Amino acid sequence: MTQVVNKKYQEYDVFIGRPSKWGNPFMIGPHGGREMVIKKYEEWIRTQPHLMSSIPELRGKRLGCFCHPEACHGDVLVKLVKEFEMKSARERLEAGVKAAGKCTRCRLSKTRTNVVFGEGSPKADVMFVGEAPGKEEDEQGRPFVGRSGKMLNTWIEKGLGLKREDVYIANTVKCRPNDNRDPAADEMRTCRPFLDKQIEIVQPKVIVTLGRIAAKSLLGVKDFYITREHGVWKKYNDIDLICVYHPAFLLRQGSKANKKAVKDDFKLISDKIKSRKVKADVV
Known about the structure:
Number of strands: 9
Shape: globular
Low-confidence stretches: 1-33, 51-56, 62-74, 278-283
Number of domains: 2
CATH architecture of the largest domain: 3-Layer(aba) Sandwich
Helix content: 40-55%
Structural class: alpha/beta
Mean pLDDT: 80
Order of helices and strands: EEHHEHEEHHEHEHHEEHH
């Protein structure tokens, strides 16, 4: 994309391709312009390492594709970029599900019923990471579907004003440890490439670890004292990360103090999301 210099096309801010003696080099027939520009634009964004970096450049601008101006308004292509990213991320996550389903790299694969890879929006602003699937998760192949899952859903809805499908939910390991024990260090190391790939694909603005096990794993620390470190912002590869109590802990010890701690932590998360969105809008 370059600045338009031809006076004939001064009404546009930027354009894809260049005009030729035939007018629109991408137009096929009287109604082919928009589709061809979209195709060309998709080809262009495939070459970009960070597709969303083009969003501020295009917002509110007219793209000169030399067909109907409104059809090629920058906001239309902003929407296109988001749709393209969503589709691409969904496909990559689905490939991850298939790969995890074939995984036999650790002992957990021998006793699992189903792989619990993760679920939610492929381009969520918030990603929750728990420690491991439980009995019901293993049976259904979905994360956080038991009593802990119902509590997490409530936190997401009341604390963030979002729905479960608006966020992405995963675990440090994709298979259930026997007897609901904590996943072993070697099991989490073996499964870590799957989680790293999920984070890379989703590109969340905020990661919320549920419980100390997930926090220790992602932060790479030996000890994590959740009673004094929950609600404290940290960084994971330049992504804001915060740890909250695991829902299962609240089911066992649902004191007023613990409930208030979760409420306060989710207020911090909500404020962080809002501040990140504001910054993105003004870039």
